[in-house]
TrEMBL record:
GO terms for cellular component: ATP-binding cassette (ABC) transporter complex. Gene3D superfamilies: P-loop containing nucleotide triphosphate hydrolases. This is Tungstate transport system ATP-binding protein. Pfam families: ABC_tran, TOBE_2. It comes from the Bacteria. The lineage of its organism: Bacteria, Bacillati, Actinomycetota, Actinomycetes, Streptosporangiales. InterPro entries: AAA+_ATPase, ABC_SmlMolc_Importer, ABC_transporter-like_ATP-bd, Mo/tungstate-bd_C_term_dom, P-loop_NTPase, Transp-assoc_OB_typ2. One of its GO terms (molecular function) is ATP hydrolysis activity. It comes from Nonomuraea maritima. Residues 5-234 form the ABC transporter domain.
Amino acid sequence: MSAGIGCRDLRVHAGGRELLSVPELHVASGRTLAVLGPNGAGKSTLLRALGLLSGHRVSGRILLDGRPATRSTMRHAAVAVLQRPILRRGTVAANVISGLRFRGVGRREAYERAQPWMEALGLGPLAGRDARSLSIGEAQRVCITRALAVGPQVLLLDEPFTGLDSTTRADLLADLRAALTGRPTATILVTHDRQEAVALADDTALLIAGRIRQHGPTAEVLDHPGDTDTARLLGYTNLLPPALTGLARTLAARPEHTRLVLDELSGEGDGHTVTGTLRRTVALGIVTRVDVDTAAGPLTCLHPGDVPAAELPPPGAEVRVEVRHARELASAGRDEPAGVR
């Protein structure tokens, strides 16, 4: 393995149950990996195991620059930022330099090294403020800036954007992406939000039930789910089995790529058209959600909100649904046949 962090034959057990099994994983220096999965998939378990922070029984090898890592080497190489900001008493600046101070850096040098990071992450105007007066978004900026100021070889991010409003989250993601660009840091982001993976990660691994089901460049992974489980995780909730389409494999599509055929001309595109019964319509502001029951299960369509409700068929009506931009799945989910659930 090249420079960075990784593992081989990693397994985590607790209470006689295997929580995680990862045969091999590597995050090269200068790259960011998003570990994307649903709640309970083992994302944080993986992060803690890689950082040698786990309280569970862990087997296998954790590698740092291709060599077996120890708690001592990992403690000096890695910094973790958790979901809930952890701040010390004192000013914002004092919190930012605390990581450097713990590593034996003198106060003056610590301030000098931290100053560019505070400016890059927008903390310059807040440097003298009491850290206890900060908002959650500001507090998380302090935690991320503190981690970056250390110049870590490995940065571990455990859902640090959870609980932030959309604007704060978008700004922080953009600032962090800019701060990491060109840096020799191997970064691992644990998240359940695919938009965070798009914004920050070069590569993405899909973790389901303690197993990595897909791993590769972020755009490729997010746009090409391999089976029904990964399709649902990535928002491809409309699954059309061969019995419904007549094709050889199951198709998957996101709701925004699925809509009712409201006139004869609109159903003559390159998409796949299926029939069903309209169950309900729900106005969601800029879009209207339309749920349709088909012979193989439910489909969800999203129509532009400017389509008047009067132009949509009533519940119980027989309708046609056009599915655009569908992806062909290579296989069914691990524990189920291909189909719509």
